[in-house]
Amino acid sequence: MKKIGIPETIESLSTKKTDRLYLNDFFLTWDKSMDELTAVLEVAEIFRYMRKLNISPKVFDSGIAVSIFRDKSTRTRFSFASASNLLGLALQALDEEKSQIAHGETVRETATMISYLTEVIGIRDDIFLGEGHRYQKEVAESVHQGYLEGVLSRRPTVVNLQCDIDHPTQTMSDLLHVMNYFDGMENLRGKKIAITWAYSPSYGKPLSVPQGIIGLLTRFGMEVALAHPKGYDLMPEVEDLARKNALDSGGAFSKVDSMEEAFQDADIVYPKSWAPYAVMEERTQRLKAGDDEGLVALEAQCLESNKDFIDWTCTDELMKTTKEGGALYLHCLPADITGVSCERGEVEVSVLDRHRVPLYTQAGYKPYIIAAMIFLSKIENPAEKLTEMVNEGRKRVL
Amino acid sequence: MKKIGIPETIESLSTKKTDRLYLNDFFLTWDKSMDELTAVLEVAEIFRYMRKLNISPKVFDSGIAVSIFRDKSTRTRFSFASASNLLGLALQALDEEKSQIAHGETVRETATMISYLTEVIGIRDDIFLGEGHRYQKEVAESVHQGYLEGVLSRRPTVVNLQCDIDHPTQTMSDLLHVMNYFDGMENLRGKKIAITWAYSPSYGKPLSVPQGIIGLLTRFGMEVALAHPKGYDLMPEVEDLARKNALDSGGAFSKVDSMEEAFQDADIVYPKSWAPYAVMEERTQRLKAGDDEGLVALEAQCLESNKDFIDWTCTDELMKTTKEGGALYLHCLPADITGVSCERGEVEVSVLDRHRVPLYTQAGYKPYIIAAMIFLSKIENPAEKLTEMVNEGRKRVL
Amino acid sequence: MKKIGIPETIESLSTKKTDRLYLNDFFLTWDKSMDELTAVLEVAEIFRYMRKLNISPKVFDSGIAVSIFRDKSTRTRFSFASASNLLGLALQALDEEKSQIAHGETVRETATMISYLTEVIGIRDDIFLGEGHRYQKEVAESVHQGYLEGVLSRRPTVVNLQCDIDHPTQTMSDLLHVMNYFDGMENLRGKKIAITWAYSPSYGKPLSVPQGIIGLLTRFGMEVALAHPKGYDLMPEVEDLARKNALDSGGAFSKVDSMEEAFQDADIVYPKSWAPYAVMEERTQRLKAGDDEGLVALEAQCLESNKDFIDWTCTDELMKTTKEGGALYLHCLPADITGVSCERGEVEVSVLDRHRVPLYTQAGYKPYIIAAMIFLSKIENPAEKLTEMVNEGRKRVL
To answer: A123 and A217: one domain?
Structure first.
């Protein structure tokens, strides 16, 4: 979005229809209208500007933000902690091993028990296809029911910190990054982005980032080109959605067979590893069956097949084929860097090094995006409240 | 307590003698006078009302709340975190594995080291008979001594989050729940509560909940009926206390031989599993002796004996025999539910499902009860301070 | 420092040159000027006085304090948590196992990712000679670069919570303790301190405390006597530094061959175990080589050699040989106490018991020292800001 000031951004926010965000969850970007997505981006930018002016956006005097991480995380963990803190909430992690969940407690019960003074629940559950999103919905339905029954005095918001389908806090940060890079949402129209598979010596990375990207960026009139080796398909329903989005927005969604083709004349590239779809499905089956040996075998087999595509890597050579040889390189990080974190990986170190500053800038939007999602789900009149806070001008650092 | 407003409740609180709660700990409900217990309940209700009015009860601008959990916990962990946060304290968990306690440090030293800027220490230590309460007292005595010697500038309060003897944050929440259900403390007089053992395919659950219940509810003129299979006795001194309480309060305390007899015409039922007394004692011995094999053998033997009493379960049939077939069903949760969390458990799913809303309401009092315990130990003139806060009306959510 | 009041201490602080502390890190005390060290001590004392007057020193409305502990800790962990909380920061621990660091991420990247809304990063990394300080510097350089490049909107401060070379939050607390004990910094001149090795049945304790002590206390005109068995040398460059400091300050630094000689007429004694220098070096080698068996063998061998010096222990007998038999006994705690935490250890229980109150007082300075280090790195005009806060007089407890 154009680097305009706080008053203009609040003014623009006030024209958006955001009532459906209030007291609601954030699961998938495609659940949300363009107005709603834009509102999230605008509030994130307002929070970022306020920080520069040393104005505190703390709206809570007390309250709990619960995090549930069912997979490793650094970036998102710290982003959620930072966002919660920025708004005045205290983080409380649900550690499923230290809790009585081990005793066989239902999702509905646990969700209620952690929610009595809770404003938001952030969940990462991305390992098993068909599971993560389902679990997040179940938590949300549980607390919603508790709220309707009067058991909970407030309705905690569920924020998807990555599920098997989408990773909205990541892709919205990515979107804000490219908007700022290209100086406004309207300038994304017609820009080409290559979202491509890349080789990594690890296995089982979720599909949610590439899915989230094609599901989101096709809504802005962009030309989205997806490339991956045979067998590394994404969920067909998300591809269908991307196709429909592109039609609606006047953009394009295409599937191509090689990284080379995708990169050709691209304004933006997003090369990233993910697991083969069939492996993800098989993995869920074997896990449910408690087949530990089978899981190990699957991993070995998967790493073996990955090797067939070791040439799917983002090189300097390839970067030269992009628009004027200067495409914006995106990655959700950490990247598997050839010669740094592994022998052969997703990207050459020279490419990563040259793009380090924009990459780290990209990651830096996430705390603000999450704070915006929480804020819009908790505050009924966001533009009014932000105006009030900016006018009061409470200092963040004394 | 009757659903009256904040001013009336503060007015009532102001008539209570609470000075002995100030700068003191909360170990066992029977250490406390009726005035003191009532004050805790009243402050908890005031905090709950304040939340509905969006008034913040934050009394600390900074300060640490330390939690020490020597057993799994979800409910109490989150309740303590929420209560601390509500009052403005930051939670800091003492993780005994990550600390230097492994180096053989004394309780006195650790207690001091974690207390320099600490206002409250919440402790769960419920696994070993004769150990938990003793440990909590030792922590309290250590910080008290540190305070007297000028080593600590403040006297941290110890709150019992469950020991081997009592579970006061649970039973006080239970009490507040039944008081609100029956529309006032005075209406508890003459009500019958069945606190009974129930079958569970797990072993070693602490005795503190049933003990806490008979030690507390006998003080309110209730008719308390305790039932358990042979060998599942509670600590004899707590039973003696319950008998004495009942005499003093004009209530009754009886031991009966079956769940059926206890449930007969009961207004409230609290069927719950616990470990055989002799097993709890033996377990402590074997643990102290480092007899790991013996512990495994004991567990197997205990689960085997449990099976003799698999019929001690709370069924719809049994619920029909309670007062007008409509007794209030209590559980501290999580319950072992037949067909849900285990094959045969403490309660039929239909009973639990029908009582889900009151059960979750019961659990929801705990953060307020804990906050009230902390508040009364830290604030010398509670009624005055609450009036001040309510008049100022600082918003919890902006 | 003399027990004078807040205004005088602020007045004194205002005469110190502290601009080089602003936006800077705290690695080693010998990086800092006398003015800078004195400023840290003065701010720590002001915070301690403010607490007694119930005035809050909260300067942050929000913000994150990250802790990275690569070794066990109780005291420092709680001190850092308390200091952060006192200033208004929320603690977020980086748990390297739960993060994606396992995936082979670079220090630079991790440092950036945890820093977007972060004000301070506290690091303990003391196990491997040549590693801890290097790592802390790398983190600091990473966030500094991020700040210069505009990736980070603020420059997070790195605070050394113990490295392989120094343990400044400990030694500055020790210094403040002895200053208050002897009623002012000027009274340290000519006082003799014995910093001596002592036997412990544990292995591999870092050298950072004795190194930090000789590197710091030689700057105040003290007579520092170091004693240890053959082979338990400290880093030669730190000994050189101590020698130079002593020359500059008009004090003395001597190495003697026995505990007895060091204790003779000492005003202060600091007997403490540490690992043999060669073992520390060998250990780093074996660890880098992944030689687990070799590490176990090294430990056994080291414990065996330790036994040759089992008589290096602080006894009542020895204490009688100190100045008027009444030297101040220091320890960073936990001490290995003969007959309490081990069969034979660093100190007799009677010595420890008699010095318990001053020992716990010593440890109690650490939260204030850390808060002072953070404050001075974040606030450009510390004396002015403190005056403002004291005048406003916001209550810590309502």
So the answer is: no
